What does this fold into?
Amino acid sequence: MMKAIVAGSIVRTLLLILIWALFCSAQTSQPRTVLDYYNLLPDKFFEADRTQRVHWMLDPKRGAIIDLKHGYLFAPGDGAQTDVYLTLFKKRGGGYLIVVKHYASDTQDFNYLEAYVYRDSSWTEVTKSVLGVKISEELKYELPRYGRAIRVRTRKGRRLYDLVWSGEKFRLRK
It folds into this structure.
């Protein structure tokens, strides 16, 4: 019986080492899914620590959505941690444009929309060059789970226009 307990302990330890090695190697390779990109987001998007980002914010029981097929992720926050939305847009030349929507830390009245590319283990903000319109924190931006259009609305919900992804940049569609 003691041999079985020791063997079980060894198996669990080896399994943890294997999982840790896979996690470390995944962090050094090019991200492939919306979840990979979420895990690499800079700390500026979070009040939550790394463990809370993965376990608490991505808990489906709290309303989190991880749609790997469509490149969409919603990670709900709470009073201190803002909700985080992430959508991948396929670039014509390969790779992805990553668009992140989040709110001011104390209210959802002001939201922010930022666009990034991830290359050589670093983030480059490209918001101004790909969106083509001035982003206003007072407008409401709805990232698509399906399709390629970001819906833009007034605070009261009136539709203003869509930003449609062309593979290189967003085009305004009224």
